[in-house]
Write a structure and sequence with these properties.
The protein has 194 residues and is of the alpha/beta class. It has a single domain, classed as Peptidoglycan recognition protein-like (Lysozyme-like), CATH 3.40.80.10. Helix content is 31%, strand content 14%. A five-stranded mixed beta sheet has the order 3-2-4-1-5, with helices on one face. It starts with a helix and ends in a 15-residue tail after the last helix.
């Protein structure tokens, strides 16, 4: 009887953890054929900061191509940069789908000095050249709303562009121009600087 109870509890806990990991209509790491992390650090949640960036890779429009690019990014991060996993928490394709990176629960490796207190969302493409689609922008807004609803983000979170925190062109001029109109965008980031 006790063994059956333990198995039932283990199954229930596994279901709960999988639902947390794959919530918010995200294409899971398993679904895009991602590798498991070498090591993980858990994020203290909820956080109050969303950092928008771009991958400076080709743009993608199809499910197959977007998944391929996310795999390529993970391979580069793990094999060349020697990271424990893919860098950002989430990736958004030109197909309007969100791809799980390290997800809501784990600390990413996207913005030195801010990883343990933020969610990094990377748009697949180069947004100095590419224009973010309405589908991409709506998908990210829905992801963020879901993050608030699920307790991963605080209700009065802030959105910033990657370049506001470190010396980079990311998220690219065309994407940066879009996020600057979002009501949660934070213009003065001096209070965030360490």
């Amino acid at each position: 009887m006790r063994a059956k109870t333990i198995i039932t509890l283990f199954a229930a806990l596994t279901c709960i953890l999988n639902s947390i990991k794959a919530d918010c209509n995200v294409v899971t790491k398993k679904d895009w054929d991602g590798l498991e992390a070498v090591r993980v650090n858990y994020m203290a949640r909820p956080v109050d900061l969303v950092i928008i960036q771009h991958t400076v890779s080709p743009f993608c429009k199809t499910d197959a191509r977007c998944a391929e690019l996310v795999r390529n990014i993970q391979n580069y991060h793990m094999d060349t940069l020697n990271l424990d996993d893919i860098g950002s928490n989430f990736y958004v394709g030109g197909n309007g789908k969100i791809y799980e990176g390290v997800g809501w629960l784990h600390v990413g490796a996207h913005t030195r000095g801010y990883n343990s207190r933020s969610i990094g969302i990377s748009f697949i493409g180069n947004y100095n050249n590419d224009t973010p689609t309405t589908e991409q922008l709506d998908a990210v807004k829905a992801l963020i709303k879901c993050g608030v609803d699920k307790g991963h983000l605080i209700a009065d979170y802030h959105v910033v562009g990657h370049k506001q925190l470190i010396a980079t062109e990311s998220p690219g001029r065309k994407l940066y121009n879009k996020i600057r109109s979002w009501p949660q965008w934070m213009q003065d980031v001096s209070s965030l600087k360490q």
